[in-house]
Amino acid sequence: MYLAFASSALQTQLAYRGQVWASLFGKLIQVFAWIAIWMSVYGDAGSVAGATLPEMVTYALIGGTLTTAWDWRRLLNAVGASVCTGDVAVYLLKPMRYPLYLFATECGNLGYKLGAIALPVGVVVALTYGVLPPASLFHGVMFLLFWALSFVIIFLLAVLCGLLAFWLLTAFSLEWLLQGILSLLSGTAIPLWLFPDQVAAAVKLLPFAWISYHPIAVYLGKTSLAETWTYLGLGLVWAALLTLAVAVLWHRAALRITVQGG
Amino acid sequence: MTAIIEARAVSKRFRQHRRFPGLLGALKTLFTSEYTEVTAVADVSFAISEGEAVGYLGPNGAGKSTMIKMLTGILVPSSGAVSVLGRTPHRQRMTNAREIGVVFGQRSQLWWDLPVRDSFELHRRIYDIAAARFAENLGSLSELLELGPFLDRAVRQLSLGQRMRAEIVMALLHDPKILFLDEPTIGLDVVAKDAVRRFLTQVNSERGTTIVLTTHDLQDIEQICPRLIMVDQSRLIFDGELRNLRATLGSRRRLTLEFGVDPGVLALTSARLVADEGPLKHYLLEREDISLLDVLTEIGADRDLKDVKLKEPNIEEVIRTFYQGRNAAGAAG
Questions:
Q1: In terms of domains, do B212 and B177 share one?
Q2: If exposure means fewest CB atoms within 10 Å of the residue's CB, which of A206, B65, B129, B137 is most exposed?
Q3: Reduced to 3 DSSP states, what percent helix, strand and coil does chain B have, rounded to the nearest 5?
Q4: What is the pLDDT of residues A171-209, one digit of tens each?
Q5: CATH no. for residue B235?
Q6: Which of B76, B98, B113 minimises the CB distance to A259?
Q7: Domain of B291?
Q8: What DSSP character marks residue A196?
Q9: In Å, how far are B156, B158, B182 from B147, measured between CA atoms?
Q10: pLDDT by residue (tens digit) across A209-246?
Q11: What number is the ipTM of this complex?
């Protein structure tokens, strides 16, 4: 059943092919801009904080495409709107679980975004500036795991904020809050190794770091074997905690909808 | 026959956070926890047997949707008990959902961006409908409601009438034992309303699906539902067959007598004179047990009576009189 939701989400996206070109060019310009910034920052320097320029180009490429391919804002607003207006009751009428339904649908959307946007942008950038292969086979395989984890964590954060909108009656401010946190703490634009040591050490432990920083750091081989496993374990713990939070919040929201009528 | 839907002394009260007007009031609202309680359903009891078609009627805000939501398990009663197919709907939400079909007139359950056919296919997956059964149902239902021409069109491109027909077909694809409809004809034009009504009557008689529908359109009831449950101001005020409603609520038939020559003032004991236009006189028959023959006997044969018209009140008039009487009584009390 949930597989069907994923494939239908993919089909829905295909129905809006017109949007592809705009998103595609937007992404392309964003990634090129980041790379241009790094090139001017590096100038003639061989390496900054232990990272070379080709590494930074690869960082910008992965951060700009793979780990941010999927649009969490849309989900956050959709969940927020459906709990605030009470439309979510429609999902309660069917023999299915709403959070699982959302996850299945978003997997379909992710698949679409990867194929239609991330892949073309990645190819164009790679052909223009070149891209580094994973540091080792181990790091390459681990990157795939971290990448899946990255999607799960950002998905859970978006649903969590969307559900919070039920109590705060606004999804908009939560979107801005999450946007602000992510732009700084996820490491998408600025790698955490450029942060002051103590700040970086703390930020690396927050769930946001698993969205972009940890997956890319693993890809580039910035983490040792032991560190990689540790961060994978910690990331799974965060995913579990967030899942629990979503489950509790959804349960309470559902309870309030059924007792209070929304 | 045993009841498959039962409501026993069901009440539903909503707590509403009290809001204060104005900007300062808005701030005050943030920091207070004063609530006002609103009663949507008060002490309503009824039982519905398998195969019945029941209309749940009442003016806006009478608690119709609230009752449907409690029966479908998405609202919990504040007190009393609801039982559907022997289950408590909100406790066994998933099991209950498999055996009922629900249509909300004002809330679409179809997938907005997908063709109707794909929505149905998702529905099949959600409810695990066997492929053969699904194909058979889809074939016969969409033929009955003539969905053919727009099965492959995206839901957002459909007219309201087409969408509503698709909603009803979808709600029936998994062979539900009970079909709940909340205002299924709201906003539809006459032709679409008629199609929906004929279809529901057919579903009820041919498939034996129990139907419960809320409406404030009396024609829905007249055409689909032999039984009527009426609510007003959150209370049940009538439960029974439509034709008994007149007797219960005390309806008045209108009698017009036309004479060849003005007989002058003609007071009758069997009917009350309400308007006198000389040869044309209007009476009200206030008692059910008085027949036209009684009136004619009282008038006698020597009055040069030309024409007699007896007008049965339509159901709408009956209910209007009832609500008016009730409001007048409320104002007096």
A1: yes
A2: A206
A3: 40, 30, 30
A4: 888 899 999 998 889 988 888 888 888 999 999 999 999
A5: 3.40.50.300
A6: B76
A7: 252-312
A8: -
A9: 15, 11, 21
A10: 999 999 999 999 988 999 999 999 999 999 999 999 99
A11: 0.79
